[in-house]
Specification:
Number of domains of chain A: 2
CATH class of the largest domain in chain A: Alpha Beta
Largest sheet of chain A: 7 strands, antiparallel
Oligomer: homodimer
Structural class of chain A: alpha+beta
Strand content of chain A: 25-35%
Number of helices of chain A: 6
CATH topology of the largest domain in chain A: PSTPO5379-like
Largest interface: A-B, 18 and 18 residues
CATH architecture of the largest domain in chain A: 3-Layer(aba) Sandwich
Chain lengths: 261, 261
């Protein structure tokens, strides 16, 4: 089924019922999607500060009150425990299992962090005439570890993870302009053109996601990626953390155009 | 003395030596200035979340690690205890005293919050040909309580405080455009034209600061104000809190143009 023009609330209902348990890429065009990270309260100040100090990879969409499961500002009555198609439960930094509902894992001291996802701006790129290769090829976006150090905060630190899209030379400036105004879903690229300058040895071998075709006359363009905060969290090995499964995002009721400052 | 074109580091040295203990309005044109709020760690997550949920009145410039007195990203080796001309010590929400150095009051569990100040964009307004009345009249900016409810977070809640500048009708759009790009120092206005619509009964009687002349053909334009977070903090009556004294700001080494997203 094609959910590209479906309303977010309708899709969230299908997710909540368990009828959609797959990736959300391409769903509900024009609406922002979010990465999820849930941590116990004792890590919450450090992680909130970490996101504030690294707004390009960790742009906050909404942060819950301690113990709250309700998404208020980004969605009409969103349920953080049921409204994502797939979750990952991590214990001491190790993936324990994947589930489609986290109600039974919920703790009163949990704080959720909803972080902007670059899926949000891909619709805008396509509408502006900028091709998005992994969508054309039916793949996941290629993502890479880099040598770009993040600003540490408390127990959290690490390097930036980036996503890559090959852009025809004559459309590189347009790809910057289109995404620059959308800072809450990663905004403008963090690097254009030289993978090795940011510590990427081979642009055909992504660390996460799939490799995509780079044609002659195309430039690899790199955006900060929402995998970054998850990586930082896993490095600190908290007793428990819950995240979305890659590509299985929370679809908000907020249009990307309304996320602009 | 005129410090309008002095380097921030030089002015901070004079402040640190105690040679400047007065207001910083008009100093170091082009460089961002910051409001200060210091709280014990137990309030830090709630307050950081409060600022994140209310970015117009509480735009964060820098937040310290727990116990850290050093301002790193916004200044070259800034000292939060000595580099503001005047501080206020609050106990249980009551002003206890004003001092020019808070070293002896410092606690290992303190967290500082540096919040953008609209002094920062006044230089840009003037340079763009938009008059700033309180500077012309040698007064403090007029500030008002409003009926605009803030998004609560943990123990913090309250209404927005705004600053007002009378702008000639033909320059109102320009005043929006000039400030809109500077979201980390309050950004675009939150209201134009009707004080009563935001709960202000008499625009000639500010709740803080000084009244200024509004000429025929001028429109009162309202910006979110950095007094807002201080008000919210005082309403919760923490055992201890330290803020800047009104108008006695931290002058950063960062140009306003570099604060744009």
């Amino acid at each position: 089924m094609d959910f590209s023009n479906e309303a977010p609330k309708k899709v969230r209902e299908l997710i909540r019922k368990g009828e959609i348990d797959y990736q959300t890429s391409g769903m509900c065009n024009g609406f922002a999607q979010g990465n999820l990270c849930i941590l116990p309260k004792k890590y919450a100040f450090d992680f909130l500060l970490f996101c504030n100090r690294n707004p390009k990879p960790c742009p906050l969409l909404e942060v819950g009150d301690v113990g709250s499961k309700v998404i208020k500002s980004m969605a009409d009555n969103g349920d953080i425990c049921k409204d994502l198609p797939k979750y990952r439960i991590w214990k001491n930094g190790v993936l324990e299992k994947e589930v489609t509902d986290i109600t039974e894992y919920w703790q009163d001291d949990f704080v959720y962090f909803l972080i902007g996802c670059s899926f949000s701006f891909e619709g805008e790129l396509i509408e502006s005439g900028v091709p998005v290769r992994h969508i054309e090829e039916g793949k996941n976006v290629p993502m890479f570890n880099t040598n770009i150090r993040l600003n540490p905060a408390g127990v959290f630190h690490g390097n930036m993870v980036v996503s890559m899209r090959p852009i025809p030379q004559e459309l590189v400036v347009k790809s910057v302009n289109v995404t620059a105004t959308m800072s809450r879903v990663h905004g403008a690229p963090i690097h254009i053109g030289s993978p090795e300058a940011i510590g990427i040895a081979d642009v055909s071998k992504p660390d996460y996601g799939d490799a995509v075709t780079i044609n002659d006359g195309e430039v690899p363009v790199f955006w900060a990626c929402g995998v970054t905060p998850q990586n930082a969290v896993m490095q600190t090995k908290p007793e428990i953390a819950i995240t979305h499964a890659p590509g299985h995002m929370f679809i908000t009721d907020v249009k990307n155009v309304n996320l602009k400052y």
